[in-house]
């Protein structure tokens, strides 16, 4: 049953929350009603804390004791526009008379018939039904939070909007679907185990985690999530004053051809604002980490439709998958500058390019085999022979000791990150098992492929603004005393320099053939974008 509380009958919420004095008995009594709603929601969801709607906490801070929240609200006031208590179990459907009880019943009956499960016999009916109602009211809730932004913008820059979509109700719904739940056992029952890397379950991290936490590994239905986050601008180039960041969870228990299907990917966070969250993303990840801690420590009681039984489901965060800048935001490591490698850290080998004005890592060849010929080819790299060995990777305990004492005021202007290679202690260290993972953050292969491809295409076709070759690079080669055949040459009577062609330099005929090949390429439907439209035969780019 979805709860609905309209406050005291003699006044609406907007009146008692924002207009009458906080010292009045009407306000005190109404706050007590709110605390009752919040505690009931906490009990039903099994949460260990309650989010605080005080105007500075803005539901981003959680308290185990509801009296702390009550004192905040009485001594100060509610955050603006929070007349729909969406963080405490309500949706606009609860407050909207246009959504009738018959409509709600029809939705529930339709859902029951789809999954062949009688939810009237299940204790978890409340969470499942609440998730269904929220999905129909998500757009309206977004419109409501727009009012919050307009109020904030009068006193300063527009605030970010956080949409948090709980994952526990969706896990319950997933396990109640008989068609899907058998797939969640695929990694243990149907995976081909031949020693080859075919699935995440074949990785050393999966096997080592099962050894470290045998109780978790023995229950093959326990979920292992991969977390991915990135930012997009939904307005394209029309506006540079907006950023939308999403946090997605994929389920690694599934077969590899289903892990990345939209049906099985859970969006947990949507962060909207004029700028990207950057290093402050931990503030927005707090409710997700709270849910992940609950799923790890006590788990949740769910109905497993395949065996027609209940069991205690637990889940863990296996790793994150992002591009390199987001890697830095989530891990807390500074992925910029001369120590940008998060594996080598202080042992990162880099040189400063005087003309290009940026660091380069041409001597970073320690990961090669000791007898690899590139170790001795000094002239094609930075002029030095590489005889050092690759340092062993840091374990979680050692890494945690490096960040344990870093205290950063996230979200506060004037409190920038500390100097050094670590910017903060990531919020993921709150997870009890995080320090036991060998690999905590991964780089998305798609971004690597895209960046390398763009660099190579720009270099081969000598596209202005895209090529990595130019006068500045050649001058740095001259300063480093490497590749003399490519160093810039003087031209009699001219101030400009002549850049000798490199082995990869294409003639106009070769560029034309190269572009014609891409222009005429044909691939299966849905394989890629229309490459033909991306190739300009006129400009040969």
Note the quaternary state here.
single chain
Provide the low-confidence segments as ranges: 1-10, 96-133, 135-157
Largest sheet: 6 strands, mixed
Structural class: alpha+beta
Give the number of helices: 19
Overall form: globular
Number of strands: 14
Percent in helix: 25-40%
Q: Look at the structure and give the mean pLDDT.
A: 82
Strand order of the largest sheet: 3-6-5-4-9-12
Span of the ends, CA to CA:
60 Å
Task: Classify the beta-strand content into a percent band.
Answer: 5-15%
- The value of Rg in angstroms is 28 Å
Structure explained in plain terms:
The chain is an alpha+beta fold. Among the domains are: 1-137, no CATH class; 160-332 and 417-443, no CATH class; 506-541, no CATH class. It is 36% helix and 12% strand. The strands form 5 sheets. It has a 6-stranded mixed sheet with strand order 3-6-5-4-9-12, sandwiched between helices. Strands 1-2 form a two-stranded antiparallel sheet. It has a two-stranded antiparallel sheet with strand order 7-8. The termini are far apart. 21% of the residues are buried.
Features:
alpha+beta, disordered N terminus, 19 helices, six-stranded mixed sheet, 541 residues
